[in-house]
Write a structure and sequence with these properties.
Distance between the termini of chain A: 43 Å
Largest interface: A-B, 41 and 45 residues
Helix content of chain A: 25-40%
Oligomer: homodimer
Number of helices of chain A: 6
Strand order of the largest sheet of chain A: 2-1-6-5-4-3
Order of helices and strands of chain A: HHHHHEEHEEEE
Largest sheet of chain A: 6 strands, mixed
Shape of chain A: globular
Radius of gyration of chain A: 18 Å
Strand content of chain A: 35-45%
Structural class of chain A: alpha+beta
Chain lengths: ~170, ~170
């Protein structure tokens, strides 16, 4: 089972098949549940999240704090390091303006894995922030994504430095 | 201390028992499993995560780095602030020993919300770390939990300080 679970998480393309064949918790008698499950595809969701990240990076490059705030759900929580959480899109707009005004010109976001369902995707990855050509932060993150108006948006966003504090 | 160790021993024995009873690979009749799935309830999962957190806090108080490492899945990622991610239970054991040896005597973990399904739970919350009576860190976190051998374990664990860097 452990081996199967590892496979399940490392080879997302096979997730539906593996779930159907092997899950401890698979319902054998519930056709409707099975159909609902097969309609969600984690690979597709991953591609959509990659696309959302590209959009996010473009907004950082454009210094568009309003666009960045709109990438978050209305009830999002931006769990920035070195500060309390910022809750709600209005306050997140201020946080995004702060980041843009701090001189960050580029974010290189590298998705590593996604997990979850159509209701909630958890993404893990790493990112580098730049001021001009200069990398100023190396971080890892987890983002919880939710769909709002049919679009994946950041619902929870937490990250920390991968480098020792100076 | 002795009481906690006794408890841990009982818990470990319980895990083995649960493993023997529930392991997919040892079960041919899936009727009970099907019932369990249909009954997945996020409130129940939340209570189970609360219980896992209590256990985690007891392990911190006991300075039990082996027990703490075993609270993580075998393929877990401990995404500590100020350092690269630590991957796998073996290296996480070293990280836990480091925390125990740093003099942390208490972790106050406060779950705020959980999201997800029987395959993956995302938890958000806040925690305070203590050395004796002295709070030495105020943090927020997201943990992704997965079931391993029928027990919720930390699969991804990321946190950062809610206070400005000194």
């Amino acid at each position: 089972m452990k081996k199967i679970n590892t496979y399940l998480f490392s080879a997302a393309a096979g997730i539906l098949m593996v779930t159907a064949l092997n899950s401890c918790t698979q319902k054998t008698d519930e056709a409707e549940e099975t159909i609902a499950t097969t309609e969600f595809n984690l690979e597709t969701a991953k591609a959509e999240i990659e696309e959302a990240n590209k959009n996010f990076m473009a907004l950082v490059a454009a210094g568009d704090s309003v666009g960045l705030a709109n990438a978050y759900t209305i009830d999002a929580k931006f769990m920035s390091a070195g500060a309390p959480s910022v809750v709600g899109r209005e306050d997140i707009l201020s946080a995004m303006a702060g980041i843009v005004n701090s001189g960050i010109t580029k974010a290189d976001i590298r998705l590593e894995s996604v997990y979850g369902t159509e209701d909630l995707i958890a993404e893990e990855g790493e990112l580098t922030l730049f001021v001009g050509d200069q990398a100023v932060a190396e971080e890892k993150y987890i983002v919880l994504w939710k769909k709002e108006d049919g679009k994946w948006k950041l619902f929870r966003d937490i990250f920390n430095s991968s480098l020792p504090a100076e």
